[in-house]
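Input/output pair, single chain:
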Amino acid sequence: MKYLKTGLCIFIAFVFIQSLFFKFSGSPETEFILGTLGEWSGQAWFGKYGAYMVGIVELIASILLFTRFHALGAFLAVGTMTGAIFFHLFTPIGVAQPAFNEVGEVVGNDGGTLFVMACLVWLAAAFLLYQTRKGDREEVD
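Output:
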C-alpha cells in the first residue's frame, strides 16, 4: 500500500508541477481558460491573476504531499480539482479545450485531456485522503 500511496503522490505532483509552466508563463491555453472564466464570472481580475493563484496552491499541494502534512496536500489537490471539474462542466470553457500552436493560433482541441487529468488527480487525491482517514481510525482502535 505504501508504494501505491507514493505513486499517487508522484502522479499528482507531476501533473501539478508540469502545468506550472502554462500557469506562470501566460500561455494561450491558460489565458483562454482563465480569461473565459473571468468574463463568465464578471471577475475580470481572475483572468489576469487566477493562474498565479491556482499555480501557487498546486505547488504547495505538491510539496506537502511528500511531507508529514501529506493529507493537507491531498486535501488541497481535491479542492483545486473539484473547482477545475466544476468549471469544465458548468461554465463556457467546457470539457475539450482549444489546442494552440507556437504562435498562439487555435489548431484543434485537446479532446478533453485536461478534463480527464483533472478527474484522475481528483480520484488519486480522494483515495489518499480516504486512506489517511482509514489509517487514523486503525491507529485509534
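Residues 1-139 form one domain. Residues 13 and 124 are 11 Å apart (CA to CA).
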